[in-house]
Amino acid sequence: GYYYWRAEAGYLTFHALSPASVASTVEHSWDGGFSLPGYSVEASVAEQRDLLYSDYKCATRGEYDPDTGVDIKFNHALSAVRFCFREYQNYSEPIKITKVEVLGAYKTGDFEENRASGALNSYSSAPAWSGQTAETDFTLYNDVDSPAALSWSGGKANITGPLGGTLLIVPQVLDHSGEGLGKVSVRVTFTIDEGANYITVSAALPGLKGRDPSNTVVVNSWEPGKRYTYVVTIGLNKIVFDPTVEDWTWKPEEDIYVMIG
Fold first, then answer.
1. How far are the Cα atoms of 15, 32, 110, 188, 236 from residue 170, in angstroms, in the given order?
2. Residue 217 and residue 215: Cα distance in Å, rounded?
3. In the predicted model, what is the mean pLDDT of the chain?
4. Among 4, 16, 134, 159, which is least packed by CB within 10 angstroms?
């Protein structure tokens, strides 16, 4: 149905959550904001949808044009994870990536907005997740027929990617050994000889630190509203993962680096 402005003077408070499909399970209170118990991301990366919650917005009838509506700022409740690639050396045949997987990541958890009181239109939130469960393997990229070939230009390795989709994931600590489980890891499959042989390498993601001394980023958890970009340098003798973290607000990025082998 339709909702209307109050006839008398006073404020209306707007607070929104997306997607609409969570409406049947979400809980809400004025003091704490949204609570969403048992939220799960889709196991298929291609079918995932972002989980967004808005800031509180208090407005009066005369403040906004009915045709343009009320402006509301949304925030990301999930973490975003993606992978880019480059070659360690300029080989005679390019390395070709065929598959990228994230293994053993929790797909389910309980979300709390934890809204704090504040002045009008100056409310703050401290979003938090708990009760994470359901370790799942996610495929971000899978293309044997037309794999992603890594390249060089001007004497430098080009960064290819992000490959496949961005993993939208429940925020979590990456080492699950405290629950008797393993560590979240990435598995990459590639070939250098037109598919005659496939090489698969894996790396545990918590605690990864890159080869570049200036990069001090160490990622032990994925936090809400953050986007993590892992730049994977692949060679025939070593693999280097360079991670970076950024606020998920479309600002210029930093990257993350990690070494295995």
1. 22, 20, 9, 22, 34
2. 6
3. 81
4. 4
Helix (H) or strand (E) holding 84: strand 79-87
- 238 Cα distance to chain centroid: 26
Q: Which residue has the higher pLDDT, 135 or 218?
A: 135
Q: How many CB atoms lie within 10 A of CB 171?
A: 22
13's tokens = 């408070």
Q: How far apart are CA 245 and CA 256, in angstroms?
A: 7
Angle among Cα 212, 217, 220 to the nearest 5 degrees reads 130
Q: Read out DSSP for 231-248?
A: EEEE-SS-EEEEEEEEET
Using the predicted structure, report yes or no on whether residue 39 has a pLDDT greater than 60. Answer: yes
Tokens of 57: 């917005």
pLDDT tens per residue, range 187-243:
999 988 766 678 888 888 887 665 555 666 778 899 999 999 888 888 877 677 777
Query: For residues 228 and 82, is the Cβ–Cβ distance under 8 A?
Result: yes
Q: If you count DSSP H runs as helices and E runs as strands, how many of each does the chain have, helices first?
A: 0, 23
**CA 97, CA 141: separation in Å to the nearest integer?**
9
Mention every residue, 6+ apart, whose C-beta is less than 8 A from residue 209. Answer: 215, 216, 217, 218, 257, 258, 259
Q: Please give the pLDDT value at position 245.
A: 78
162, burial (CB in 10 Å: exposed 0-12, middle 13-18, buried 19+): buried
Residue 255 has pLDDT above 50, yes or no: no
State the pTM of this model. Answer: 0.84
Instruction: Give DSSP secondary structure letters for 176-220.
Output: -GGGT--B-EEEEEEESSTTSS-EEEEEE-TTB--S-TT----BS
What per-residue confidence (pLDDT) applies to 65?
Answer: 65
